Amino acid sequence: KIIASRLLASKVTIPHFYLHLEIDASPLMSIRKQVNDQAEKTHGNKYSVNDFILLATIRGAQAVPAINASFAGDHIVKFKHVGLSVAIAIDDGLVTPVIKKAETQSLLSISKAVKDFAKRAKDKKLKPDEFDGGTITVSNLGAWGIESFDAIVNPPQAAILSVGAAIEKPVVKNGQIVPGLRMNIGLSADHRVVDGAVAAEFLSQVKKLLEQP
Question: E strands, 14-155, where?
Fold first, then answer.
């Protein structure tokens, strides 16, 4: 009931707008393979594509702090810390536990936190305070083969990043058609808080961070 009422309030009261970018996913997949090949030898942590996306989102929010804000009726609240809400699908809905002070976390600690959230979400063992303090959300449907989508803003936040699957497709480089690995990222934003130029700058920052990991 809570999820349903919040989603309805979001779509009815928040003036959403949507941006999309296609990124070259090859560098990201390459570095993930290198890191995971090393982890296999040392029995270290295995990283998902989403771990790198989460880190890029955090760094993007630091570079464009205006995205890390909330509408509060007659003023805008800008947050000092990044509270990263991670969308996790469970049997009867969607939950968004929060990595608090995410800008202080390493790729390793982010990866471990998400694995822990996912396990406890399925077992219904997340604590109420683990849903507090989110300032921006990432929703990734790439595992289901979805190429792109527009997510609903998670109030009182002002932005949510949507991530699609990495897809092999022909791309044009230097006037030649060559094989490429591409991924769509999108941003849904609250226009009361975030202007188009700010949202575009943030999404461009995330693209740059993912293409130069």
Answer: 16-24, 69-71, 76-78, 84-86, 88-90, 93-95, 98-99, 136-140
Q: Which sequence positions are flagged as catalytic?
A: 191
The rounded Cα 167 to chain-centroid distance in angstroms is 18
Instruction: Give the amino acid at 143.
Output: A
- Quick check: pTM over 0.85? yes
Pairing of strands 69-71, 76-78: antiparallel
pLDDT tens readout for residues 107-116: 999 999 999 9
User: For residue 178, how many other CB atoms are within 10 A of its CB?
Assistant: 9
Neighbours of 1 (CB within 10 A): 5
Average pLDDT of the chain? 94
For 59, phi and psi rounded to 5 degrees? Answer: -65, -35
Contact between 18 and 188 under an 8 Å Cβ cutoff? The reply is yes
Phi, psi of 176 (to 5 degrees): -115, 145
